[in-house]
């Protein structure tokens, strides 16, 4: 590892205070480039860097590595390791609409669950809870009883350790309380497996896949889509989802435009 790369990794860990996972991702991506070229990253020009990245067909993977390289060169320029700052353009990625389910589709899945056992009630409650809050599955699995304050959920372990408040629909709360009254364990965490231990991400994936045929993340998209189609302000949706940037939330504007177009085509006499 070159001295400049080592200095950059120390900078993002200590000064920027990025998470351990983020630091490891930067280290892996940048170290790969040095290993492929067998040269210090700082000595590569644009052509050499792009040649080293030419083997990556997946544009999202490629953009992640390009972003890491740009961050490294920006650091080197500020630290006066180089006189000019390189900035590589990211690859264009087609804007695919996120997959989502309607409230009716989710309702059919929930009704198919045998809720005569506490496990069944847990599965139904979790599906509705994810759809009612739009939480990331990692956030959902970490919530505790103390995080629910009346009809509100306080997300304390969001991405980037940011805290936010989300209102919870009564239907989801009712099913949650029904599950909690039947669960045979007393734990601070809400979502438990049959042995009383915290539910894993794999188990949560199996639940939504079994009854809805999708991953838990699709319920997050379904939540955002329902809000946008209902006329919610994009910045409000950003706050509810816990997105750091409005750019991340703007993917849902394509759904809004499609809905407007469909409305005109179906109802306007000149369509």
Structure summary, number of beta strands: 3
Note the main sheet.
3 strands, antiparallel
- The domain count comes to 2
> How would you state the average pLDDT, rounded?
86
Count of helical regions: 13
Taking pLDDT < 50 over at least 5 consecutive residues as the criterion, the unreliable ranges are: none
Overall CATH class of the largest domain: Mainly Alpha
**Class based on secondary structure composition and strand pairing:** mainly alpha
Oligomeric assembly: single chain
Strand order of the largest sheet: 1-2-3
Distance between the termini: 62 Å
- Work out the radius of gyration: 23 Å
Strand content: under 5%
Would you kindly provide a written description of the structure presented here, covering whatever features stand out?
- The radius of gyration is 23 Å and the shape is globular.
- Strand 2 (152-155) and strand 3 form a beta hairpin.
- It starts with a helix and ends with a helix.
- The chain is mainly alpha-helical and 271 residues long.
- It folds into two domains: 3-78; 103-264, hpI Integrase, Chain A (Orthogonal Bundle), CATH 1.10.443.
- It has a three-stranded antiparallel sheet with strand order 1-2-3, with no helix packed on it.
- Helix content is 57%, strand content 4%.
- 25% of the residues are buried.
- Helix 1 (3-15) runs antiparallel to helix 2 and helix 6 (118-133) crosses helix 10.
- It has 13 helices and three strands.
- The longest helix is centred in the first third of the chain and has 20 residues, at 59-78.
- The mean pLDDT is 86.
